[in-house]
Design goal:
By secondary structure, this protein is of the alpha+beta class. It contains 28 helices and 25 strands.
């Protein structure tokens, strides 16, 4: 009876999983498909616009050149002159051959006879409404205009390009131009259309001016009528677009894109209808396979149920059976989960849109969370069945700590937490033990701290007590999280236990993590304990003995650094970035190469630098005010075609490098700058004859961090003012550039929270979400100001330990006395002496105030410093 109930329960549970999973999968796939279609349509319309404008520009250029012909101008001024007429007609015949359409027309304002190709001339009555184009061209047009005309006699519709002809006094005396057969024109645009998209051109009145079905053009069918199923006013929407802008929309008919054709004053629209074939992808196949595996798992589960039920009479046997079953099931489920995570990772390496990338990342994270739960179950089942073994071997404790910290910092990035590490550098570095299990223990405890801490900090402390050839490691993980109730402390390390479910209802997990952790520690002859105050935080303490392999201590282990095999003192490099902090970071990372490094803060300045000096390599930032890096690079290329220019940007999503290479950059380097990538770039692009053998490491840079922090502080104060001004003037384009700059510079100094918020504000700026910007910018600026205050306070502390304050006070008093008697020479001498103390912020203020003559302000600061 119980077995039958369980079978029914299994079937119902599977159907719930199937329905819920299918719904979520379809939702994700729909978003991915529509985003992909949107990108395809934007590219499609851009190609069509360029092709239309290329054809049109070619014909326009010939028409304008013909209108400027002196022979034609003289002939139009005196059409009765036979000699002038003969010369002009010969030139007109030449221009006819130049037009791609081999079609030409001309007429002068004296006789108003319309000549077209080999057709019979006729008089143009300007009073007829259909001939509106004549007066418009002569009286309202400076260079050229367009009009469309349908001739039912020859069943031909033409796009006319009309160019006015002016005399020497710039008075209109006639017109010339060409008529492009619109059906041939549209065919030329559509001949390479292998896309699934339906495509139309239309004018400001909504009349279709281009389509595969030419009847829509000849009947001047309205675009709203033709595409009424779209469900929007296409004409009204199009008129709100900026020149060359393309927008995508989700409609009842499917994904559409609407763009502009500024040259013709037209618009274009492309549509890809929704189709069931959209879902014929590898991801769909993977999802179906996963559902089949889960179904098979349920069948296997029910097959195991009968022998499992029989053995339940003996609790010891039941526990063993449970562990065996969990181990088998964990292995069965791990296979499809690894496939899902692997396919997600492969998809992320492809060129996909930002929106699709976010969806795939969500799938990958969910899969990783589920795999973590499965791993917990598997480990616990191994522990219970006695199959989990401790495998000790030699390892480096510094490497283990570094791995753990790097992993946990990645998880902390997505939270509002600070991470603090305190390691006793007298702990032996070369130890003997199970490195993998110790890493698992530390990650379990730290991951719990992240999960149960909403704000504040998490700390990791390690100390060691040496006895003979053994060190007793004491590892403490403290957090400022929600803490644990006293009544829950005793059951904290139990199996499948999650305490305080009401407060932790949103936290994922099996309740096995701490149970596994305690078992692993005990198997390694260690112990774990916890102290906690509910509402204030917890501290987990692990005592773990390890054998010492050598006398090498933790503090002798250097940070990871790459070996510098060359220097280039004769090479000259230019770094272009509008953020001083980024310039300082880049220059600091290049110090070991001993190159001549110049810095500039704009694309315009870079162009002038290149004109004045000779460079071997340029690192060019992308997003800068006034002129971006792409435009600056192209202007430099006009005079320095072979100069290597490397794109330097914080936008490192998939496809970015390919975009920069296609624009003309030689290579790509993402910010924050990775020293290994930088070394590769320099090895690849610096001239070989300017490289000399050297041996050193990137870690040899000294005092650069202090300089970078000082630069970030000054630049941050400037950016706060600029961002506030952008908000006041609603200049969101410049706002986006400024927060983009802060995103990379704050990441360079380790301010990850500031960098993360700046990234969100940058995305909002790019998407036009001004409401989000107005709501979140104040708290962003407050956090940035707090960071700058902290940097400034630390800087002052450092200054107190490095500045000779007695000597500084002597110079300050000299300046005060000089001001008191208004002795300009003495003031100049005193300020010159004070320049040796400019690392003190107040001295910088004094020097600035002296320059503007604010002597009262100078005396006030001196009294404050010397009082």
């Amino acid at each position: 009876m119980k077995k039958n109930r369980f079978i029914i329960f299994s079937i119902v549970l599977y159907l719930i999983i199937l329905l819920a999973g299918s719904g979520i999968f379809i939702l994700f796939m729909q978003q991915i498909i529509r985003t992909s279609k949107g990108n395809e349509l934007i590219q499609f319309l851009e190609i069509k616009r360029i092709k239309v404008e290329n054809i049109g520009n070619s014909e326009i250029a010939i028409a304008l050149k013909m209108a400027d012909s002196r022979f034609i101008q003289h002939y139009f001024a005196d059409p009765e002159n036979i000699k002038l007429k003969r010369i002009a007609l010969e030139e007109i015949a030449g221009y006819r051959r130049a037009f791609a359409s081999h079609s030409i027309f001309w007429m002068n304002d004296k006789d108003r006879i319309f000549y077209s190709d080999d057709n019979k001339p006729y008089f143009v009555n300007v009073e007829v409404p259909d001939n509106y184009w004549y007066l418009m061209t002569l009286n309202e047009t400076e260079k050229y205009n367009f009009n469309i005309n349908y001739n039912p006699d020859i069943n031909e519709i033409k796009l006319w390009i009309n160019a006015p002809v002016f005399d020497s006094e710039h008075k209109p005396i006639g017109m010339v131009g060409t008529g492009i057969n619109l059906s041939e024109f549209v065919s030329a645009v559509y001949d390479d259309n292998i896309s699934k998209a339906e495509h139309y051109f239309f004018n400001t009145l909504g009349e279709i001016t281009g389509a595969k079905n030419i009847k829509l053009v000849t009947t001047k069918k309205n675009i709203n009528e033709e595409l009424s199923k779209v469900g929007i006013d296409i004409i009204a929407y199009s008129k709100n677009l900026k020149p060359n802008e393309v927008q995508t929309l989700d409609t009842k008919l499917g994904k559409i894109a609407i763009g502009t054709i500024p040259l013709l004053g037209w618009y274009s629209i492309a549509i890809i209808p929704d189709s069931i074939s959209d879902y014929k992808t590898n991801m769909t196949g993977l999802f179906i396979a996963m559902m089949i595996v889960i179904a098979i798992t349920f069948v296997i589960f029910n097959i195991f149920l009968k022998p499992l039920h029989k053995t339940m009479k003996d609790l010891k046997v039941a526990s063993k059976a449970k562990s065996n079953f969990l181990a088998k099931m964990s292995h069965e489920i791990r296979t499809p989960m690894n496939a899902i995570i692997g396919m997600a990772e492969l998809t992320l390496r492809e060129y996909i849109s930002d929106a699709a990338r976010e969806h795939i990342i969500t799938i990958k994270k969910a899969g990783a969370n589920l795999l973590s739960i499965i791993n917990d179950i598997l480990d616990f089942s191994k522990i219970e069945s006695g199959k989990l073994e401790i495998v000790p071997r030699n390892y480096l404790f510094s490497s283990l700590i570094k791995d753990v910290v790097n992993i946990i910092k990645m998880r902390i990035v997505d939270s509002n937490l600070s991470f603090v590490m305190n390691i006793d550098y007298n702990v032996p570095n070369s130890l003997f033990g199970d490195e993998a299990r110790i890493r698992q223990v530390l990650l379990n405890i730290l991951s719990n701290a992240v999960k149960y801490t909403k704000k504040g900090l998490i700390s990791l402390s390690v100390s060691g007590e040496i006895t003979g050839d053994t060190v007793l490691l004491t590892i403490e993980v403290a957090d400022s999280g929600i803490g644990i109730k006293p009544e829950d402390l005793k059951k904290l390390f139990g199996e499948f236990v999650q305490v305080d479910m009401e407060s932790n209802k949103g936290v994922e997990g099996t309740g096995l993590g701490l149970a596994i952790t305690k078992n692993l520690i005990q198997m390694m002859n260690g112990d774990i304990s916890v102290q906690s105050e509910y509402g204030k935080g917890s501290t987990f303490t692990v005592k773990l003995p390890q054998k010492i392999c050598s006398n090498e201590f933790f503090d002798t282990i250097k940070n990871d650094s790459i070996t510098i095999k060359f220097c280039a003192p004769k090479a000259r490099v230019l770094i272009v970035d509008d953020i001083d902090t980024n310039l300082k970071v880049a220059k600091g990372l290049m110090l070991p190469y001993k190159m001549q490094v110049d810095l500039c803060t704009s694309g315009i300045e870079a162009i002038e630098r290149v004109k004045a000096d000779s460079y071997d390599l340029i690192f060019m930032d992308h997003m800068m005010p006034e002129m971006d890096g792409i435009e600056a690079m192209k202007l430099i290329r006009e005079t320095h075609a072979n100069l290597p220019i490397i794109a330097l940007t914080a936008n490192a999503v998939s496809g970015t490098k390919e975009m920069f290479l296609s624009k003309g950059f030689n290579d790509f380097l993402s910010k924050p700058i990775d020293t290994i990538e930088l070394n590769s770039i320099l090895e690849k692009w610096l001239p070989e004859e300017k490289r000399e053998k050297a041996m050193g490491t990137v870690s040899e840079i000294s005092n650069i961090n202090l300089e970078i922090l000082d630069t970030f502080y000054k630049d941050g104060l400037k950016k706060i003012k600029e961002i506030k001004k952008c908000l006041e003037t609603e200049n969101y384009h410049l706002y986006t550039i400024y927060v983009h700059a802060l995103k990379s510079s704050s990441a360079s100094i380790g301010a990850l929270d500031i960098s993360k918020t700046a990234k969100s504000l940058e995305m909002a700026g790019k998407q036009g979400d001004f409401t989000y910007i107005k709501r979140h910018t104040p708290e962003f600026l407050t956090a940035l100001e707090a960071l700058l205050d902290n940097i400034n306070a630390n800087k002052k502390d450092e200054q107190k330990g490095s500045v000779d304050f007695e000597a500084m006070k002597i110079e300050l008093n000299k300046l005060k006395e000089a001001i008191g008697i208004l002795d300009s020479d003495a003031i100049d001498d005193a300020t010159a002496s004070l320049k040796a103390f400019t690392q003190v912020a107040e001295v910088e203020d004094i020097l600035q105030k002296v320059l503007i003559g604010d002597y009262d302000g100078v005396v006030a600061i001196i009294d404050n410093l010397t009082g």
